User: Which sequence fits this backbone?
């Protein structure tokens, strides 16, 4: 996978050396010799990953990393700190600043390239989603990027897969301070648990008794239901080949035994943030798409949704020879509610009305605002008798309890008229079905309102 | 990258051999011994890629491939045909059936795995988008998958990068029958051309004079503006290492010299389809998100969009000390239009009304339906005088020409009243600005309609 790599180092020879190496690997290289220049390049979106030196005059690498990771527009960029500092405390400081990895010089080139490729690939998975989510933000749907940058990465549900008791207890102890941790010694049971859907990050030992832990990592990365779970491998330092292989398979990160508690905590936190970032992007796009088929006032589906789905339900009903019925509901004398108590009161009544209808319909029924004070309910697999019963129940619930208005300071009586129709063999499409329901509704109004009238079958 | 690989072969030993090899590479393997079983597995979404034998009793591999590639729910699955058939005509038949590659036995394992990894990675890039697009389809926004499966992959804009005249002319000749082809000998100019945005697929020779063609491929794959362009490499058979490297960099496909014309045409067609598939997914998600902020009747933005954007424009105006004004427009005696000519006529008038307003506002102005027959126009960087001029121009254009109704068979006179207000230093938020515009609109109505009234500044 090709990518644009930003190298940040205040020493020109270092910069050139790394630039040459990366260029030979066909990466596109951009460079900066100080923190502010690096941040500007990140903010302009001119790179996919950052290789960052720590010791620079002015703003040091830790601060550059912290800024990248807390700025909404750049927080998604992977950062690898590359430095001569070799104390565990430096390493931890880098990871705490949000770095995805912290490599100590002399750098093992193969390891560096494998890491860069892996991080770039993982980023590419969410790039498309991020672009859509940013469009959603431009439409005014709130800002998932800002929320993601503010995410602390705590209180996650972790799955530790390790069959060495001492090791798993040590890891669970360290992680348990910040997260809810489950330990599983058996890889097959671990996989089942992960597919059940309550795992944010998996920590997997590669040295399971009689089982190649890398296979579990690979399965987690390839099953539909577990693909979204970041995986952290735990391996012996000598197991370099399998570690590289794991990165290539899409595993997100690794730790080498003996596991440093603080490093474990820091790396897992980074993965929790990654998971929540991707989740929030997905939710943001999904939510804005859902809004397109929702009525803003009542929270019911809108006409656009009804049109699309009634057509489908109608066709399916015809195909399978099963009934489908439609209820058309209209609040009685709604205009006079608006006139006497104001538009806000009218809105309150509509919201309540929708709420009560929803409470007396099923999940498979389509409930949609048809416009104004009219609501349509589509009841699949239900004949005229069944649909009339549903309608009568709703009519009773509307009449039975007055509607609170003016923020609950008073209440008014409301009634509803309902027209009901079932699909007939001669119906060419949903329009004639709706038309009959409308005619029945008209009769209900004519006959004195607050009643259910079924169209002749 | 890990993935679920479906192996289809009617001979058990073949199946087992390939299964063992892939499993050692940490792929998850599913298998089928005939076409119908294979199709069922694909349709259930249980695999990410298909390795397909050609010679099977009953439904042969060509037919299985054709069905996978023309079924909307499975068309996105990469298919590699693996067979003992070694005639160019077999190869072409496979590619014509839509196969992403056609490998002849004995299989070079390294090449096979590199190809599988590359195809799986490319698929993963669009998986997230495909999931969103399918949700959009469930909401009733049409079916991008069906459109993509029906795509013929012709009439694309191709860029051939090759500095050997005989070679580029031969390729341009073959491709020119189906596409619009541009040839570019210089890699730098080719990159510029690609960034200019009118290229669907790039075909790049790796043997450019004094330049490593793989670097151009890598640049095309890493720049934001060219990432969406599939790249096909053309290389000498002996250049295996660079071909494998290219696949690893994200290049989509390759051909070996001497280039077979038909194979070139088939492989490029596959890439054109891939590009259009990704584009249509993207458009589908984008379009359904846009619908969430659009008013269905007038095509203007809706209240949701107005609320989000007016807040932003108001804040910016306060911050920069620049004016921002608001026009509130209401069609005069709209109810009587509905009563006299029917609701359809009312809708026609509203649409026309929106159209004329749009014609007299700028791209940076926000024009939104506020509800009923009211429309709001937000004019940034414009004071009260400027806003009044805009309003007066619109008022004149509404009055000047009658509005066609009943499908153009008659026309009626329509007028509009407009209230105008500019942000004042004491305004705490957009609500007070809108409130003043509303008061001004009320005065315009009181004073006889068909006029513009500005709120006192």
Assistant:
């Amino acid at each position: 996978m090709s990518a644009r790599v930003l190298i940040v180092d205040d020493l020109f020879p270092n910069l050139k050396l790394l630039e040459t190496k990366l260029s030979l690997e066909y990466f596109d290289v951009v460079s900066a010799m100080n923190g502010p220049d690096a941040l500007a390049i990140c903010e302009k979106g001119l790179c996919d990953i950052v290789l960052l030196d720590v010791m620079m005059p002015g703003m040091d690498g830790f601060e550059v990393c912290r800024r990248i990771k807390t700025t909404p527009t750049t927080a998604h960029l992977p950062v690898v700190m590359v430095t001569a500092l070799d104390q565990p405390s430096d390493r931890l400081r880098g990871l705490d600043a949000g770095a995805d990895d912290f490599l100590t010089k002399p750098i093992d080139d193969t390891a560096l390239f494998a890491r860069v490729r892996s991080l770039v690939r993982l980023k590419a998975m969410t790039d498309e989603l991020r672009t859509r989510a940013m469009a959603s933000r431009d439409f005014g749907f709130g800002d998932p990027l800002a929320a993601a940058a503010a995410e602390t990465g705590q209180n996650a549900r972790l799955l530790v897969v390790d069959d060495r008791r001492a090791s798993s207890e040590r890891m669970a102890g360290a992680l348990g301070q910040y997260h809810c941790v489950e330990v599983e010694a058996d890889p097959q049971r671990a996989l089942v648990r992960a597919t059940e859907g309550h795992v944010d990050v998996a920590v997997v030992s590669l040295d399971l008794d009689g089982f190649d832990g890398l296979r579990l990592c690979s399965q987690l990365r390839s099953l539909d239901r577990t693909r979204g779970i970041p995986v952290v491998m735990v391996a012996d330092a000598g197991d370099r080949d399998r570690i590289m292989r794991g990165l290539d398979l899409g595993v997100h990160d690794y730790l080498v035994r003996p596991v440093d508690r603080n490093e474990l905590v820091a790396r897992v936190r980074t993965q929790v943030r990654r998971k929540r970032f991707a989740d929030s992007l997905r939710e943001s796009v999904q939510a804005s798409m859902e809004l397109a088929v929702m009525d803003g006032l009542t929270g019911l589906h809108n006409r656009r949704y009804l049109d699309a789905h009634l057509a489908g339900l109608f066709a399916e009903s015809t195909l399978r020879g099963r009934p489908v019925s439609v209820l058309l509901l209209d609040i009685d004398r709604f205009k006079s509610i608006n006139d006497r108590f104001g538009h806000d009161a009218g809105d309150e009544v509509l919201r309540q009305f929708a709420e009560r209808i929803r409470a007396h319909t099923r999940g498979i029924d389509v409930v949609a605002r048809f416009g104004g004070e009219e609501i349509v309910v589509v009841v699949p697999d239900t004949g005229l008798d069944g649909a009339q019963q549903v309608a009568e129940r709703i009519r009773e619930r509307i009449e039975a309890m007055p509607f609170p208005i003016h923020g609950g300071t008073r209440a008014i009586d409301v009634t509803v008229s309902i027209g009901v129709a079932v699909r007939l063999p001669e119906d060419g499409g949903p329009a004639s079905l709706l038309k009959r329901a409308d005619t029945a509704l008209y009769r209900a109004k004519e006959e004195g309102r607050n009643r259910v009238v079924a169209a002749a079958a």
In short: Chain A touches chain B through 51 residues (CB under 8 Å).
